[in-house]
Amino acid sequence: MSVLFAHLGELLTGLLTTLELAAIAFPLALVIGTLLGVCRVSPIGPLRAAAGFYVHCLRNSPMLLVMVMVVFGLPYLGATVPLFGSVVLGLGLYFGAYICETVRSGIAGVPLGQIEAARAIGLTFSGVLRQVVLPQAFRSMVQPLGNILINVCLGSALGAAVGVQELTGSARQFNLDFAQPIPTFIAAVIGYLLITLTIGQLTGVVERKVRIRR
Amino acid sequence: MKLTRMTAAVGAVVVAGALLAACGSAPATAPGGAAPKPAAADVAKMISQDDAVAGAPVGQNLPHSPMLDKIRQRGELVWAGSRNTLGFSQLDPATGKISGFDAGIADLLAKYLLGKPSAKMQSGGSDTREGLLGNHTIDVAIQTYTMTPERAKLVNFSGPYYMAASGIIVKSTDTTIKTAKDLAGKKVATESGAAKTALVTEVPTAQPVLFDTTAQCIAAVEQGRADAVTLNNASLLGAIQTRSDVKLLDATFGSNPFGIGEPKDDPVFKQVVDEFLQKIEADGTWTKLWQGTVGKLLKTPPPTPPKLGSVPGV
């Protein structure tokens, strides 16, 4: 146990890497997911089909497969992204598909009357989206987006499999060096709990602030 | 809408299949049009511990202890091993058979204890071995398990039964890296645990990049993510058989003593396993096993079996 406290720094460095991965990957997933979501409700058929195809592909693959594809598959297409960037990209691409579906359901929650009214005052498709639909959709999406952010944090553990030493990776390494499996993994679990409980609390606060009372 | 969803789903399956096909058909020929290398499956077919197991000794008048009684009652030995370490412990998914030096040691130990080589492999990571031994989920760990004083605080070790040196793989075109010294300041793909420890002990300034499998480490070098791979040289030998764009250097470094891990709470069981190792090393079974497994990859004369208890952590 004392050896664990003496080397807590290594685990904290791993925790920091986990936070960095999530902090960059989640906004990326948000951008990808929103674009896809808009494509899936757009009036243009091929765009709808393409976005649907992407979501089906990604949501029906294990995340490790996506990660391995980005890290070891992309170089075959001539694009070698550094490992940290690859993990961020993998997380962004994968959770983008989930966020797309969240955005879609958020959009579906906006009353049809509002969309008709927005069309009636002469707004274009993008005007309707940007000024009427998406702001309301996002306000109703806080809770599911919080869940996805939690999943991004936990999913970043796969970075350990492809050479990025985040919290899980540093815990594994520490355990192999000092053979202290139980305390080490309990410490890692506490690290993840701190992250996810904080996100859960924040999500609740934000959600209450921006909730739409209908 | 229904139609597009169906099309998307079917399309996804088709694309996934195409990707798989593309992965499966990686070119096996060298850029210079050299002879194609054998597929990994063909190399794996050469490796078998059956000859050694057939002529192996059975323990006579073995004592009673909680562990030994449990194993007898169960009728099989449960061991922690790997599925994908060619030469040591490689699973053939078609037959379900595990072959290699470690798998052979497991079969031999099962035969020694039970009279028949019925050993069941539990595949875990290298993270969980001490935990699994501690709570008796497994009887022994035979998994390129490097003996260290830290680990010996938690588990008993019998061994070493194999001394592994770290080997180095670089791109075929690389001329800058010739020995371990040249890895200083370079990015080196390796696996966490013994291999990484050996690397940073030997070359403190090397930057280890950790992957999960030998294949991923080598892909990292092929794709320029790392300058070299270092792992125990028998696993590297297995991997090098099937590739021509990377080469294995003659230089090795460090030495990892592999031991059989046992639960801490049964000293009698450890003694029995010690006697088992002494017996197979003395009667030539060890050498026969080496020839049927690692020796198929190394192509050197068989080494002298390591002396039991000759390293710290026993």
Topology summary:
The complex is a heterodimer of chains A (214) and B (314).
Chain A: H1 2-6, H2 8-41, H3 45-59, H4 63-73, H5 83-108, H6 112-120, H7 125-140, H8 142-155, H9 167-178, H10 181-210
Chain B: H1 2-24, H2 40-46, H3 50-54, H4 66-74, E1 77-81, E2 84-85, E3 89-92, E4 97-99, H5 101-114, E5 119-123, H6 129-134, E6 140-141, H7 149-152, E7 155-171, E8 187-191, H8 194-202, E9 207-211, H9 214-222, E10 228-232, H10 233-240, E11 246-263, H11 267-282, H12 285-292, H13 294-298
Parallel strand pairs in B: 1-5, 1-6, 8-9, 8-10
Antiparallel strand pairs in B: 2-3, 3-4, 7-10, 7-11
GO molecular function, one term (chain A): transmembrane transporter activity
Transmembrane segments (chain A): 12-36, 57-77, 83-100, 145-164, 184-206
InterPro entries (chain A): AA_ABC_transptr_permease_3TM, ArtM/GltK/GlnP/TcyL/YhdX-like, MetI-like, MetI-like_sf
Commentary on this structure:
The complex is a heterodimer of chains A (214) and B (314). Chain A has 214 residues and is mainly α. Helices cover 80% and strands 0% of the residues of chain A. In chain A, α2 packs across α5 (83-108), α3 packs across α5 and α5 runs antiparallel to α8. Chain A is flat, with a radius of gyration of 20 Å. Chain B has 314 residues and is an alpha/beta fold. In chain B, strands 9-8-10-7-11 form a five-stranded mixed sheet, with helices on both faces. The chains are: A mainly alpha (214), B alpha/beta (314). Chain A: It is a multi-pass membrane protein.
Question: What string gives the helices and strands of chain B in order?
Answer: HHHHEEEEHEHEHEEHEHEHEHHH
Q: Most extensive interface, residues per chain?
A: A-B, 34 and 40 residues
Largest sheet data of chain B: 5 strands, mixed
Query: Spans of chain A of 5+ residues with little confidence (pLDDT < 50)?
Result: none
- Gap between N and C termini of chain A, in Å? 54 Å
Mean pLDDT of chain B: 87
Radius of gyration of chain B: 21 Å
Oligomer: heterodimer
Please provide the count of β strands of chain B: 11
Query: So how many helices of chain A?
Result: 10
User: Rg of chain A from C-alpha positions?
Assistant: 20 Å
Q: Report the β-strand fraction of chain B as a percent range.
A: 15-25%
Membrane topology (chain A): Multi-pass membrane protein
Family (chain A): Belongs to the binding-protein-dependent transport system permease family. HisMQ subfamily.
Domain ABC transmembrane type-1 (chain A): 15-203
Protein name (chain A): Amino acid ABC transporter permease
